[in-house]
Write a structure and sequence with these properties.
single chain; about 200 residues; alpha/beta; Rossmann fold; 7-stranded mixed sheet; 5 helices; 7 strands; binds guanosine-5'-triphosphate; binds magnesium ion
Length: about 200
């Protein structure tokens, strides 16, 4: 599969700015600094497309990218970079503004086909469990992505994946994928998952 184009469409600060067409969309969510923007760049093979930062809380708006590929099953879709949750140092007023926005995006976007929930393969926090619970109740197709897998040895990676299954009590039909935006481990698997989400009910 070839990515024909990947371009930034817009940043949304409020729900009335979300794309109005019903183009399929896949959203990327997770704690601040977990590696969402890096993963989007790795997946789309574009280095500086999504802004990456060492400082947590970099992505504070909903950034929408339009992707086209030569795969008939995923000709055009939106990749949506959501702001990270759970970053304590961002001013409360700012946080209060975007956490509901994440929920309004997840509940109010007609084209949304699935969510990639990113968690750090080295360990999870309370907010991750809350996100898993919330997404489970929402009924949205979800895939759990264990990020920064390059920071673990091969055996630690396998252990981390099964620990995540246990901790979150995932059903068998929820996939867990190890990903590294440095080595691009997991890229093919993630594309498979996107293909499945985007073509379902199409
Ligand atoms: N070693 C390693 N570092 C990574 C990986 N992915 C991201 N990072 C680093 O982790 C930091 C945060 O990455 P981002 O992609 O900006 O994370 P984010 O989830 O988009 O963060 P916010 O926008 O603040 O929510 C940066 O310093 C990245 O270089 C990875 O797979 N491996
Ligand atoms: Mg980001």
């Amino acid at each position: 599969m070839k990515i024909l184009s990947a371009e930034f469409v817009k940043s949304c600060e409020q729900p009335d700015q979300f794309p109005k067409d019903r183009l399929p969309a896949v959203a990327f969510i997770g704690r601040s600094n977990v590696g969402k923007s890096s993963l989007i760049n790795s997946l789309l093979r574009r280095k500086g497309l999504a802004r990456v930062s060492r400082t947590p809380g970099k992505t504070q708006m909903i950034n929408v990218f339009l992707v086209t590929t030569d795969d008939p099953k995923v000709r055009r879709f939106y990749a949506v970079d959501l702001p990270g949750y759970g970053y304590a140092k961002v001013a409360k007023t700012v946080r209060a503004g975007w956490q509901p926005m994440i929920e309004s995006y997840l509940t109010g976007s007609e084209g949304l086909r699935g969510v990639m929930l990113l968690v750090d393969s080295r360990g999870t926090e309370r907010q991750d469990a809350e996100a898993v619970g919330w997404l489970g109740r929402s009924g949205l197709p979800m895939l759990l992505v264990a990020t920064k897998s390059d920071k673990l040895s091969r055996s630690e990676r396998a252990a981390s994946l099964s620990a995540l299954r246990d901790v979150f009590d995932l059903s068998e039909d929820t996939d867990v994928v190890a990903y590294s935006s440095v080595t691009h481990e997991g890229r093919d698997e993630l594309w498979q998952a996107i293909r499945k989400m985007v073509m379902s009910d199409a």
